[in-house]
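Minutes, structural biology subgroup

Action item carried over from last meeting: produce the C-alpha cell record for Small ribosomal subunit biogenesis GTPase RsgA (Streptosporangium carneum). EB confirmed the sequence was re-checked against the source entry. Recorded below for completeness.
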Amino acid sequence: MPHTYTDPSGLSRYGWTGALDQTFTEHYEAGLVPARISRVDRGLCTAITTSGSMRATFAAPHPPDPLVTPCTGDWAALRLGAEPHLAALLPRRSAIVRSSASRSSHGQVLAANVDTVVIALSLAMPLDAAKLERLLALAWESGAQPVIVLTKADLAHDPEAVHAEAEALAPGVDVLVTSVATGHNIDVLAALVRGTTVLLGPSGAGKSSLGNTLLGEERLATGTVRAQDGKGRHTTVRRELIPLPGGGVLIDTPGLRGISLHDAADGLEQVFAEIERLARDCRFGDCAHDTEPGCAVQAAIDAGELAGRRLDSYRKLQRENAWAAARTDARLRDERVNRQKAITSHLRATYRFRDQQP
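Output recorded by EB:
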C-alpha cells in the first residue's frame, strides 16, 4: 500500500519535505521511520523522529570514513525497537567538509543538508582576510549560501571600514554588521537565514551569543574571550541541531582552529571569481600568472585593479587543495590494492584447500 505524506507530528519543522518523503518509500516498506540526526557521539546519535527525540546506535563504517559516518543534519532511516538503530543515511544534498583535523586523507563533515552558512567574525579584532577566504571556500563548496556576519559592532572602532573590506573579499555575499548587545541588524539576519543554518567561525567570534539571540533563549553556552587576541574558550564542544522559532533549524559548531580545505576546487573558483575571469584573457591557456607575456592577471595587479595578496592567497589555497586531493587519490589507490590482495589471498587459500581434498 503506498505511503501518503501527511507529516502530522511536525517533522517538517526540521526540514522534512514531500520530496524527501518520496525518496523514503523503500525504507517505509522495510518498516523504517525517517529521522534527522541532531547530535552524534561515539557510536550513538540523537535522532529526531515523528515520535520525538531518541538515542540510537549506528555501525561505524569499516574502514573508517568520516564522509559516510552519520553527522549532525543528516536525514536517516531508523529501525525502532528496544534499542533504536540507524539503518541507513539518505543522500546528502549539501555538506560542509574540511580536511580531517588528524591530517589524514579523509574529509571531516561538519554539517549536512545545509542551506545557509553564517560566517561569524568578531569586529573586536582586525579582519583576517585569509581566514575569511578559507571559510568562504568551505561554505561555497558545500552548496549552501554563505552570509558574513561581523559581530560585536559595539566594540569596534570603525565597523563600516571592516564591512567594506569584507564586501570586497566576498562579492555576491551578504555582509552584515551586528551587535548582540544592542540588537543591531539581528532582525535583518533573522530574515536572511533560511532552512538549515550553520554557524561557522573561530572561537571568540560570538557564534553562540548570536545563536541564542536567533533562538530567543539562552540555549547555547557562551564564554569570555582574551583581550589580547580575541580568542575564546571552546564553549561549544559538539555540533547540535535546534529548531528556530521563526522556522528552520540552527546548527552551532565548535570554534574552528584549523580550516584545511578538502576537495574545494569549485569553492575556490567562487571565492576568487575575479582571478578566474581575468585568467580567461591571458595569452596562454596554461598561464601560471607569473612572468608569462600577455598575462591578464599580472596586468591587473600592475594597474592596481587586483591586490597581489589575493593572487598569493589563491595560489596557496590551490596548492593546499591539490595536496589534499593527491593524498585522497593515494589512499583510494592503496585501498584498491589491499582489496585485490585480500581477494587473491582468499582464492589461493581456496585452491589449496580444494587440492588437499581426497
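Discussion: Residues 96-252 form a domain with the Rossmann fold fold (CATH 3.40.50.300).
Next step: EB to file the record with the rest of the batch.
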